[in-house]
Amino acid sequence: MRTRLAFAVAVIPVLVLIAGLPFVNRPDPVVLGLPFLLLWIVGWVAVTPLFLGAAYLLAGGGDEPSPEGDRR
Amino acid sequence: MTVSLLVILAFIVFSAVVGVVGRGRGEMNLERWSVGGRRFGVLLVWLLMAGEIYTTFTFLGASGWAYSRGAPSFYILVYGTLGYTISFFLLPPIWRLAKRRGLHTQPDFFLARYDSPALAGVVALVGVVSIVPYLQLQLAGLGMIVEIASGGAFGSTSAILVAFALTCVFVYTSGLKGVAWVAVVKDVTMILAVVVIGFGLPAMYFGGIGRMMDALARAHPAHLVFPGSTTTMGVGWVVSTILLTGLGFYCWPHMFASAFAAKDARTIRRNAVIMPLYQLPILLILFVGFTALLAIPGLKNPDTALLALVTRSYPAWFAGFVGGAGAVTAMVPASMLLLVAATLAAKNIYRPLVRRDVGNAELMRASRVAMVVIALAALVLALWSPKELVNLLIFGYDGVAQFFPGIALGVFAPRVRARQIMAGLVTGEVVVVSLIWTGHDPYLGMNAGFVGLAVNALVTAAAVALMPAGPEPAGIRERFS
To answer: How many cross-chain Cβ pairs, A to B, lie less than 8 Å apart?
Structure first.
């Protein structure tokens, strides 16, 4: 179902960002002047619109029935 | 000194005029006042929602946290992203229900979904009680911004009185449309100010952002990773705070209601796609906080770091520009909060209490009266009990985030009933208030609001499992389609 796939795509960046925090809590390597922890956060925030944009293409604008509704 | 004061005053007055003129033609009614007639396109909805992420907290709290605590401030970059991702799926069905039933407020949603005046009443009360400190926070921040940016020429109290009186005028006359137009002024000037100082200040003192970060790594290596210079804000606190504030993002009555203003569900989704980019300028504000830590260490109140550095680094007119942008940054969320709290108090507290048929015209009048009362309450709080900025915001967040199970299950689990949501909601609120009152925030290394939300979710799940399910309420799915 396209809505399910859209959901899976949309949650990737924020999920990876947050789940990764315990493992990236270090200053090195420094990239583009940013310590690694900050780079991790900023990078995922910056690409989130790409994932949400893909979800938009998959799921449409939401003027269709809700994910629960269209299972009827 | 007078130059900066003039610039700031010009900003405040100009914004208020834009707000009054932004009203547009035609007679004002509750539908236009509270949800802008449900006609906002992508641009206006974006401005409204952006108006609420860039608050005085962003200006002062984010730089203040970067200055005093370091890495824990990074959470401010993340929680909106979680909030927008959730909104992509959650808000379109809510918008459809709102459109179909003519909803104006968040408790309206709970009433329309759960058919329970008691649940709607609890949501209304928690909403107003959470909004007032948030409003107070904006006012206190506004006073601080104007006082420092004007070099003390305009005291905090008079600044709050003038700016807030003007804010009340345009909310009273124009409602949501006025708020959206003032948000235009705010967004343009604030982003301009942030870009100029975010690149300018590190360049001025260190020759660039990269070199400034190098200097920071040498002088304050602990600032680059969690828990920064604190002992309590480790990874557990950061993750739990992101989850709490991200899930709670659209639980704020004003954020929730701003979705009602959209002209269709597509508008809401398009906003969700682009909004995360709009968080990136917060990074520049963090850089300013770091630069301030290196250039002017030892400030008594870290929330003043950004403004203190700006006033000593730039000519007076530009300090006035930043101060003016900061003042408008407080006025926009303040106006939105005021508008929403007033509509909510009139429609969901006053109307059920008088127990008679209250027409829309009377509701409109009641909303305006409520607006004045709430404004005065926030004013009294702001003038007599200023506190450190971020803690107040977190307190409000803890309260409204408890709505999340009721909203999400309301949309996606048609069988869930009011009493199950009520059980979780009340338990969550009790846990949050007890933890904060007894000084247990963070609790076990986690944000107290998150602990409350976890207990809330568990109790709701237990109630759903234990209480007899009963038949699905008739037509519940159609309400969202």
So the answer is: 136
